[in-house]
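step=encode ok
step=design start
structure_in=
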């Protein structure tokens, strides 16, 4: 009988621990997120998350994070020919990936390219934040 009780307690503790771990593809509102450095793009992304009211908490302590966001961004300035004949505005793009901090399970990924973006990094960061908010709210 004691073995059965111990087994039940063990199963319940495993189930409870599993329920506390973020599942792949599901992001709970108010989860803590750490944003890895991305050559300055992390600042634009943090600002966009606040501006778009994404229901997550951005933390500067990776050990306290439920998720980690990594990614890249790029801005291509127009050459002289494009400046004269087409437009002088830059083309921008960004890709972000959000994974569970402890599991490494993919929770969210998004990539955006913007042509003729006046505020290149800001515009791409806001697009990432908008889609992240949609992903959290649809669950």
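sequence_out=
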């Amino acid at each position: 009988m004691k073995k059965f009780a111990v087994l039940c307690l063990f199963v319940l503790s495993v189930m409870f621990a599993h329920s506390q771990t973020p599942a792949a593809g599901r992001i709970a509102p108010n989860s803590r997120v750490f944003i890895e450095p991305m050559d300055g793009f992390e600042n634009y992304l943090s600002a966009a998350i606040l501006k778009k009211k994404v229901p997550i908490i951005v933390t500067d302590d990776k050990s306290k994070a439920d998720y980690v966001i990594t990614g890249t961004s790029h801005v291509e300035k127009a050459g002289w020919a494009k400046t004269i004949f087409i437009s002088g505005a830059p083309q921008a793009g960004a890709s972000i990936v959000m994974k569970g901090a402890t599991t490494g399970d993919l929770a969210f990924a998004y990539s955006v390219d913007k042509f003729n973006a006046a505020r290149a990094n800001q515009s791409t960061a806001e697009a990432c934040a908008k889609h992240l908010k949609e992903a959290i709210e649809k669950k």
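step=design ok
step=annotate ok -> The two ends are 41 Å apart (CA to CA).
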